[in-house]
User: Which sequence fits this backbone?
């Protein structure tokens, strides 16, 4: 009895030590993530798309359904995440930005666990820091979709990597379920889910399963992966919104026109160069500097990166923030170069860390964010007196967050400005853009917001109609600059104060 007690005492002490270490690690990464993201916290205009996701997510609690009442083509799960953030009671954008910070720390912790397969705790810890930095550089500085689905992919990787694990099949099933949830954040994770599924099936084949058994397991994987989407579809079927759900999720994606620039714009060349350099350095390091201590895991990481690359380039139009999906794969492939126990010691790891943190330009970003806040305050002050729950603002081009910030009602289910002004969306909606624009203007909204410079290729019909119509019945009452664009507030002339 005494011997058993003495054996257990050191084990319990060691468990407590590990728990304290993990707690300090989580705290340290959380503080670092908050420091890196500090310039953007509280800025409605830290990014563009998330303003729509937050608006639709908040409207869930008012009975407004995505696709039926407010339109977008992102999966239901993404709006549910933003709805959960809104349920915290914090005002937007704090609610979803702090919620997203939890996910970026989770991703860093999961990446560290994968890195420990090849390197020591110090290198793995720095890699977690680099993950937060690279995700921020590549567009996940606030609450873009990548900040949510990338940790899910890392979780899948941890579960399926070791195909010789005694519970490999059970772990793979859990991974496929996670992949199914990730599909409800962004459908383009399909290539990564396929890679993890094929890796797990290959492991089962090596373990002695015959082909009929492999086929049965593959079918089970597919069911687990598709189940969340099937459940959402059944919900919409029961609610009478199946047609809207099907069109938004599985038809409109293929109707959207590709951008003239193709999948890779010229300006992306410099932007992605850090990722390219790290990848090449890692591959070179694996051959010439430090042979990975687990070559099978390193091969798995290379496959992860290739699958993430397929995710980035799956849509016909690729936006810069998509490249955040490459960050974890690039860092893992770069480990033979970054390993502080390699032939040149800590120099590569230190140099890369300093360079990446330098690329953040945090002082400049903080100054830009402060300008955004002041501009947003000015726009809200000009708009708010003229709108309410029945008199609706219409943002033809400008921040979607103005609807929430001013307390305005919503004049259309196509509430995202890009859906009605972007030429690429011309044939990808359930209505003609020009017809919806004419309907909205026919309702004589008290306030209309426009921009002097477009983000995207514009539909000439809708732009021309708004440009011609506004001066006839509206006057500009405020101008502000956000993201280097002039945002103008037009007030209906009969609402102008009399001289």
Assistant:
């Amino acid at each position: 009895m005494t011997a058993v007690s003495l054996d257990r005492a050191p084990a319990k002490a060691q468990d407590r030590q590990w728990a304290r270490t993990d707690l300090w690690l989580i705290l340290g990464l959380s503080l670092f993530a908050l420091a890196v993201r500090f310039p953007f916290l509280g800025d409605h205009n830290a990014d563009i798309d998330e303003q729509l996701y937050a608006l639709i997510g908040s409207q869930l609690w008012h009975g407004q359904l995505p696709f039926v009442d407010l339109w977008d083509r992102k999966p239901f799960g993404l709006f549910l995440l933003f709805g959960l953030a809104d349920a915290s009671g914090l005002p937007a954008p704090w609610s979803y930005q702090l919620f997203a910070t939890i996910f970026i720390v989770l991703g860093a912790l999961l990446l560290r666990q994968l890195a420990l397969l090849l390197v020591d705790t110090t290198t793995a810890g720095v890699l977690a820091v680099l993950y937060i930095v690279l995700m921020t550089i590549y567009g996940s500085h606030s609450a873009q979709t990548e900040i949510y689905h990338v940790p899910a992919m890392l979780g899948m990787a941890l579960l399926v990597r070791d195909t010789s694990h005694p519970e490999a099949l059970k772990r793979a099933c859990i991974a496929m379920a996670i992949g199914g949830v990730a599909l409800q954040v962004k459908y383009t994770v399909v290539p990564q889910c396929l890679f993890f599924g094929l890796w797990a099936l290959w492991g089962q084949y090596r373990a002695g399963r015959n082909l009929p058994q492999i086929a049965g397991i593959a079918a089970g994987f597919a069911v687990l992966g598709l189940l969340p989407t099937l459940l959402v579809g059944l919900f919409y079927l029961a609610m009478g919104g199946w047609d809207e759900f099907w069109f938004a999720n599985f038809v409109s994606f293929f109707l959207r026109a590709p951008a003239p620039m193709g999948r890779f714009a010229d300006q992306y060349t410099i932007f992605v160069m850090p990722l390219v350099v790290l990848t090449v350095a890692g591959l070179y390091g694996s051959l010439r500097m430090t042979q990975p201590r687990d070559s099978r895991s390193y091969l798995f990481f290379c496959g992860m990166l290739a699958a993430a690359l397929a995710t980035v380039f799956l849509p016909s139009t690729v936006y810069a923030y998509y490249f955040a999906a490459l960050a974890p794969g690039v860092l893992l492939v770069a480990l033979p170069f970054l390993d502080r126990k390699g032939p040149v010691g800590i120099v590569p790891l230190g140099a890369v860390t300093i360079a990446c943190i330098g690329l953040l330009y945090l002082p400049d970003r903080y100054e830009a964010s402060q300008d955004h806040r002041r501009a947003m305050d000015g726009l809200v002050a000009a708009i708010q007196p003229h709108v309410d729950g029945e008199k609706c603002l219409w943002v033809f081009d400008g921040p979607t967050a103005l609807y929430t910030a001013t307390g305005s009602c919503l004049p259309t289910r196509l509430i995202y400005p890009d859906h009605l002004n972007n030429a690429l969306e011309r044939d990808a909606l359930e209505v003609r853009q020009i017809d919806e624009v004419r309907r909205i203007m026919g309702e004589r909204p008290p306030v209309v917001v426009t921009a002097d410079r477009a983000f995207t290729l514009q539909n000439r019909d809708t732009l021309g109609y708004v440009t011609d119509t506004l001066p006839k019945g509206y006057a500009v009452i405020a101008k502000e600059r956000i993201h280097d664009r002039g945002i103008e507030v037009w007030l209906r002339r009969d609402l102008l104060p009399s001289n």
Remarks:
- The first strand starts at residue 393 and ends at 395.
